[in-house]
Amino acid sequence: MDIEEFRKAGYQAIDRICDYYASLQNRPVVSQVQPGYLVDALPASPPEQAEDFDTIADDFQKLIIPACSLEGILGDLYSSSVSNPGFNWLSSPACTELEQVVMDWCAKLIGLGDHFLNRNGIGGGVIQEQTTASEACIVVCVAARARYVRENPDAKLEDLVIYTTTQTHSLGVKAGLVLGLEVRALPVKPEYEYGLRGDALRQALKEDHARGKRPFVFIGTVGTTSSGAVDNLEEIGQVLKEHPCIWLHVDSAWAGVAMACPEYREYGKLDAINKYAESYGTNFHKWGLVNFDASMLWVKSRRNLTDALDVTPEFLRTKQHDAGLVVDYRNWHLGLGRRFRSLKVWFVLRRYGVEGFRKHIREGVALNEHFASLVRASPDFELVTTPSLALSVFRLKLPSGVVLKEQETTLSALNDLNRAFHTRISAESDKIFLTQTMLNNTFCMRFAVGAQRTKREHVDQAWQLIQASARTAREDWLA
Ligand code: PLP
């Protein structure tokens, strides 16, 4: 492709992306394809001859079609235009330094303390090359394990335990699988909205220490996936103060960006995070206006990452690194090479400004509050937990006067009814996608707001669809 062909194809790509965004309103919210559709549509081997670019672009239009945010797309486009292996400062100084700056911007935006800033030279932030909160958690566990073993040379690897709660995202179990470590999920109670209290942690530590186990990291959550639960990080931090070898990581993959608004910082336990957390992670690609992927991790001490992950063969040595003049992010995560992801974040933050970013978050919370008020006012539905920021968890109630079948309990009947409703709404409408979850054996639905273009009318339409499906699901269930 020469430069003129690139110019033409580039304009065409932007036109097509614009058309795609303009058409989003009329597209199904979930892909309607069947498994294998693409495997069957594509040849099993690469083409022998070069193909015309228009054909490839048409196939993309027809077969792939992605979804992301406009400013971020442009950032990604620019990022693809620079040759940038990213594996150390020398090979990619702009990529490294923009990331240092942008990570500090993001930290300040969400209120993280100065000790998490790159510019303090001790802590710092990195966009994980492995691109997800799950992989950030593995990196954290590797660093926490290395620190623990350094400080407790008698510890045996088989005794180490990763602590999570029953509400932690699958990332806790995944980290255990990858690292070959035991994971203990601590129980949480509905009375505390499924967040962990300090006493449950203290009790677990007592039990595990008595059986010779060595918990070395606790993965707390602000905004669990299922219900937006928030662990009581103040109490947890107080308990962990008595066990300074245990690393506190806070996963706030979707909710973290809400801390951009001062009014949500108390809810998000920001003070406790700043006081006690060794590391903190959030995904700007979830609710933070940045297109996938931008999974961010901050640590209080970058040494903990580099002590665990710095492997420097001769060919990777540079005089700038040896002199301690630069950050080489390769030692802050698993991969070596890295994409220029900070560009898209930079584009988004500059284009929105702190004010615009906060407005976006506040709109998401307000829309969810609107949804929650519709549920509260309905005789047919109920909220299962208190709405959390932009997430509501709800379910259908049993019709009044319903007689339970033999062996049926109220809970099993409710679960059957709600499963029937969920199956129906998933099959009936291509305009709404509700994910389901289980909370203490209760089957419920999650309503989450977060997209930049979601407006009140969309929430109202969603509510209409929910009510219509609920009517038919109930009739069928009663029949
Ligand atoms: N943690 C929480 C609280 C989440 O909600 C999610 C995703 O939904 C994750 C972790 C996993 O994120 P990732 O896909 O970046 O691994």
From TrEMBL:
Gene Ontology CC entries for this record: cytoplasm
Residues bearing the modification N6-(pyridoxal phosphate)lysine: K286
Keyword terms: Decarboxylase, Lyase, Pyridoxal phosphate
Superkingdom to which the source organism belongs: Eukaryota
Alphabetized GO MF terms: carboxy-lyase activity; pyridoxal phosphate binding
Cofactors required: pyridoxal 5'-phosphate
Family, similarity comment: Belongs to the group II decarboxylase family.
The protein's name in its UniProt record: Aromatic-L-amino-acid decarboxylase
Organism of derivation: Pycnoporus cinnabarinus
